[in-house]
Amino acid sequence: MKTIKTIREAAINLLKVKSIVTVLTTLTFVYLAVTGQISQDFMVVYSVIIAFYFGTQAQKKADTPDQQEEETK
């Protein structure tokens, strides 16, 4: 049962706008890489989007234990 909830939560998280933008940008990156059409400008934009996405994910994980400690007090 716990696995189903985890899968469901992951699917719900993928539907968030930030995740959709990241996935679509990654798919575009893959397409451009395969066809050899990547420009320097796209690389900069893609790098910023990926850094933002994973930076916010890391921050959420770092904040979670702090919030749990405050709730138990």
Describe this structure in words.
The protein has 73 residues and is mostly helical. It has one domain. It is 89% helix and 0% strand. The protein has helices at 2-14, 17-35, 40-72. Helix 2 (17-35) packs antiparallel against helix 3. It is flat and about 45 Å long. The two termini are 30 Å apart. The model has no long low-confidence stretch (mean pLDDT 81).
Write the layout of secondary structure elements.
Blueprint: H1 2-14, H2 17-35, H3 40-72
Helix pairs in contact: 2-3
Number of helices in the DSSP assignment: 3
Beta strand count: 0
Shape: flat
Summed over residues and divided by their number, the pLDDT gives a mean of: 81
Kindly report how far apart the N and C termini lie: 30 Å
Class based on secondary structure composition and strand pairing: mainly alpha
Please give the largest β-sheet: none
As for the number of domains, it is 1
Summed up:
With 73 residues, the chain is mostly helical. Helix content is 89%, strand content 0%. Helix 2 packs antiparallel against helix 3.
Keywords:
73 residues, mainly alpha, 3 helices, flat
